[in-house]
Amino acid sequence: MAEKASGDKDIARVASIDEKHHFQGEPDGSSIIAGSEGVTEHELATLRHVADRLPYTAWLVVIVEFAERWTYYGTTNIYNNYIQFKLPPGSKNGSVPKSLRGGNIVAGALGQGQQKSFALRTFNSFWVYVTPFVGGILADTLWGRYKTIMIFSIVCLLGHVILVASASPASLQNENAALGLLALSILIMGLGAGGIKANVSPMIAEQYTGKLRKETLPSGEVVIKSPAVTIQSMYLWFYAAINFGSCGAISASFLARDNGYWVAFLVPTCLFMLVPFVLLIGKKHYVQTPPRGSVLIETFRVIGFALGPRWSINPLTTIRNIKRDDFWDPAKPSYYEEGKVPAKMTWDDEFVGEVGRTLNACTVFLFFPVFWLCYSQIDGNLGTVAAGMTLKGTPNDLIQNLNPISIIIMIPIFDRIIYPFLRSRNINFSPIKRIYTGFLVAGLAMVYASVLESYQNKLTPCRGGEFDKQPAACEDANGVHQATPLNVWIVAGPYILVGMSEIFASITSLEYAFTKAPKRMKSVVMAFSQFQTAVSSALNFALVAVNVEQKFVWLFGSFAVASWIIGTIFFITFRGLDRREAELNAIGQGERQGFQDETPETTTGIQKV
């Protein structure tokens, strides 16, 4: 973050040169906003901003995301029990025999223990959030988003079929064979899911092609139909679709408990077949951004040309050179005399500005690994905490579905009540402020989890004595699980709080990634945003040794402190971006010299003539 100050200067300098990012309105506010349908500066400042209607193709993309996320969470949310716990007494498929379902017996299959379960689940998360780069690069440079999603959906479907085979009763008779098939399915499904993930979120936003305009409501009020507000609303509902899909894990928990894991994995596999079907329905109607093969190569070359003259044997000198106001100049064709422009320099000055502003804006995402570390605790560790409580027949991995359910309930409240109320009071709850709030709430969730686990440790029947074990592993001499008197639903708090933090931070990151990227690089920038979850998973790998129940109190508490500290540093570092929101939204909205734009683009920036 040491480069932020110089980055601010560079953006300001480029903006002063580039007229379309510079405000030159009339003093009386009568200037027309460029790209709008007759909206003046005064009207923009005084009229209420509301979201526009969404095209039906956007809802088709929502259905695709819903089906894909159902199948993802409908499998991964039961991985913890599937991998960690052994087959229940008398079971061949992982289900709990009917006579034992009213007690504290949990479904299980592979019996690999907490640490191996954590390691495999962490690798799965890492892999799923690394592979979006593959899908993003292929979409932006070769296939386009639609074709990329279609191809990777077939890949993902193959992985689901292998997962079902891994959980068959025949496979479970040989734990090594079942474990090997599980690992193979994780690799294939992760590749497919990552390829879809990088492209589906920018694809939904580009379905909206409306412009800034006035509209009179039935009440007689004149309002501004704002593309920026529309994009914000669109991603709220897109995230709601993700969490509706997440609720698929509710059925998965009961299917695993009552019918075995092969059935629990088969249901989402069948549902996944909706993805290619829905894609085909809207094939002729989707707004599609064609790939442009050289954009990534050009981006790396721009960075190379800019860095080339700045390197020094002395690292401090290199850092000082990078901070220079003219850092990007060697990458611009105008920097060279006529006839001496390098042959590899196939871009114009504006593209250099796009790369510079995008890199500065996207450093926002570098803070997110700490946020995702907090989120990762509801994926398995809190399930282990729940396993030590009084279940009364409730599957311990069912509780985590309170996270998507709470998000589904809260999103309409935020979209229809809280955010419009703040806008009506001229309170600028900007992306940077929303993300910071997400960090604070995530930290609060970890405090709740830490206090709860500390209290449960004091109540476990296995505290001290011959059978001194942690709550989830507490058994008597006959191997029967001994639960604490705490009701399992008490663990709901962290799931709900993390859900609220996602509305502030995660949804806003999707919005931010789309609006701050040049149109030809949206999938790759989205992949970079999602890559931070992979970084979080890599950090989790380093913490495998402390991801055991006896250290949960310390682990949760540490994540709380880290979230608050890193979130505060994030806000201090990037609060200046709030003042440049309109300018950053205008990145890549102009035409490139020598290139023709094939598709309309959402007007998210404010440009004046």
Short description:
The protein has 25 helices and five strands.
Secondary-structure topology with pairs:
Layout: H1 4-17, E1 33-34, H2 41-46, E2 48-50, H3 56-76, H4 79-84, H5 113-130, H6 132-143, H7 145-166, H8 169-172, H9 175-205, E3 213-216, E4 222-225, H10 227-246, H11 248-259, H12 261-272, H13 274-281, H14 295-307, H15 315-322, H16 349-362, H17 368-376, H18 381-387, H19 402-424, H20 431-459, H21 492-504, H22 506-515, H23 522-542, H24 552-574, H25 581-585, E5 607-608
Parallel strand pairs: 2-4
Antiparallel strand pairs: 1-5, 3-4
Share of β-strand residues: under 5%
Query: Percent helix among the residues?
Result: 55-70%
In round numbers, the mean pLDDT is 80
CATH topology group of the largest domain: Growth Hormone, Chain: A
Give the class-level CATH name of the largest domain.
Answer: Mainly Alpha
User: Which regions are unreliable across 5 or more consecutive residues at pLDDT < 50?
Assistant: 1-24, 587-609
Architecture of the largest domain, according to CATH? Up-down Bundle
E-strand count: 5
Summarize the helix and strand pattern as letters: HEHEHHHHHHHEEHHHHHHHHHHHHHHHHE
- Domain unit count: 2
Shape descriptor reads globular
Which structural class fits the helix and strand makeup? mainly alpha
Kindly report how far apart the N and C termini lie: 34 Å
Report the C-alpha radius of gyration, rounded.
26 Å
> Please, how many helices?
25
Query: Largest sheet, described in full?
Result: 3 strands, mixed
User: Numbering strands along the chain, what is their spatial order in the largest sheet?
Assistant: 2-4-3
Q: What's the CATH H-level homologous superfamily of the largest domain?
A: MFS general substrate transporter like domains
